Amino acid sequence: MANSKRQLFIKRRMRVRNKLRRTNRGRMRLSVHRSNKNIMVQLIDDVNGVTVASASTLEKDLGFVGKNNLEAATKVGTVIAERAKKAGVEEAYFDRGGFLFHGKVKALAEAAREGGLKI
């Protein structure tokens, strides 16, 4: 029986997340969700089950920038790095979910690294 696209996405997301949980060494998780129009990112403390910081293109000041969503993803990555520093977080592990590491997801990760967050 063939799996649907959604089922394959969920399998890929869980495979990535489980690998990261085995090797996280107590760090926080930088979790990314991407839709066709927006990109959202959360800094999550899995030990306490708390979201420490978040950023999204749904916020008014981080919204859609022209026609290039890579610019918006870069802006969100920079903002999450700033908010993580304010919360006292220096390093986290990058949870790309079921998304491939290219395009908007890669732009967000690189901007967060340039902002000073160790991923």
TrEMBL record:
Keyword line: Ribonucleoprotein, Ribosomal protein, RNA-binding, rRNA-binding
Gene name of this polypeptide: rplR
Secretion signal, residue range per the UniProt entry: none
Protein name per Swiss-Prot or TrEMBL: Large ribosomal subunit protein uL18
CDD domains: Ribosomal_L18_L5e
Membership in a protein family: Belongs to the universal ribosomal protein uL18 family.
Function: This is one of the proteins that bind and probably mediate the attachment of the 5S RNA into the large ribosomal subunit, where it forms part of the central protuberance.
HAMAP family reported in the protein's UniProt record: Ribosomal_uL18_B
One GO term of the biological process aspect: translation
A GO CC term attached to the entry: cytosolic large ribosomal subunit
PANTHER family, alphabetized: 39S RIBOSOMAL PROTEIN L18, MITOCHONDRIAL, LARGE RIBOSOMAL SUBUNIT PROTEIN UL18M
UniProt GO molecular function: 5S rRNA binding; structural constituent of ribosome
Superkingdom classification of source: Bacteria
Annotated transmembrane regions: none
Subunit structure and binding partners: Part of the 50S ribosomal subunit; part of the 5S rRNA/L5/L18/L25 subcomplex. Contacts the 5S and 23S rRNAs.
